[in-house]
Amino acid sequence: MMELANRTPSNFILIGIPGMEESQHWLAFPLCLLYIISLVGNCTILFIIRTERSLHTPMYCLLAMLALTDLGVALTTLPTVLSIFCFQAPEINIDACLVQMFFIHCLPEMESGVLLAMAFDRYMAICKPLRYTAILTNSVIANIGLVIFTRGICVVLPVPFLTTRFTYCKSHILSHSFCLHQDVIRLACADIRVNSIYGMVIVILTWGVDSVFILFSYIMILWAVLNIATKDGRFKAFNTCISHICAVFMFYIPLISISVVHRVGKHHSTLFPIMLANLYLLGPPVVNPVIYSIKTKQIRAWILRTFHRHRIRSEGHS
């Protein structure tokens, strides 16, 4: 494989799981199943929100944004993951690698902003219910979405341009199934301090700030919930936040872990950061639609109605 990397200097070689190159094709089926769940789940949520006029509210508009970012992440990693595990084709052109790197970092950046907006939505719904509809109008949500989209593009766009100035005279073998910025610059034969510092600044000023505001929102939400007189009222109020809390943990825990491991865990096994990266990029697109389909009454009711209609039609034909 090293000889292949040296003969194709314009390409990178992606690795699925180190040490399992010969047998990792067995993972093709479960990975395909996870991607199918992700694509079908997020497309279903988008379709339900689009077709059900009763769901054209701020909460569900934000959920649609979350589904869009998750769908984008899944589609971004799908080509290289399947080419490795299904077709044993680990090569990727450097230009294609930089494009994938941009979307891999840009879309989670947008997802972090969406999760912050959803936390604000829950804060307004529970702590300021009388002002909720007056403040969170559809036009305000549209502007929030535009800000999230613009922020994601602007802060990540310099990354691939900063990376194109490098030459790669070391091994061209990357340690993931997709192109991560931290992984690519590790192979550069140049001073990578600018890229490393800029990456750290992005993490702190965007994901770091977002997570702090999300935490602050939930402190205020918890305070408001505890002040509700009845136990049933407290349960109903907090239950509306469960899906969002799961989405936040599913997104931020792997993100923080992989950022720390890439910067302070350089002498440890590469398997742990690889598994974290897979969980970080594939976990939310798979888990979020499942959680929201189970926990959101309107979406769950639509799915049950659809299955019920199909069952009646199949029984009628039989």
Provide a concise account of the structure shown:
The chain has 318 residues and is mostly helical. It has helices at residues 2-7, 28-51, 58-85, 94-127, 132-135, 138-156, 158-164, 181-185, 193-226, 231-239, 242-264, 271-295, 297-317; strands spanning 11-13, 91-93.
List keywords for this structure.
2 strands; mainly alpha; globular; disordered N terminus; 2% strand; two-stranded antiparallel ribbon; 318 residues
Tell me what the structure shows.
With 318 residues, the protein is an all-alpha fold. It contains 13 helices and 2 strands, in the order H-E-H-H-E-H-H-H-H-H-H-H-H-H-H. The protein has a two-stranded antiparallel sheet. It is globular and about 65 Å long. The relative contact order is 0.13. Mean pLDDT is 86; it is low at 1-9.
Overall morphology: globular
Question: What class would the helix/strand composition place it in?
Answer: mainly alpha
- What is the CA-atom radius of gyration, in angstroms? 22 Å
Give the distance, in angstroms, between the N- and C-terminal Cα atoms: 56 Å
- As laid out across the biggest beta sheet, the strand order is 1-2
Runs with pLDDT <50, length 5+? 1-9
Strand content: under 5%
Specify the number of helices.
13
**Taking all residues together, what is the mean pLDDT?**
86
What percent of residues adopt helix (DSSP H or I)?
over 70%
Order of helix and strand elements from N to C terminus: HEHHEHHHHHHHHHH
Tally the beta strands.
2
Major β-sheet annotation = 2 strands, antiparallel
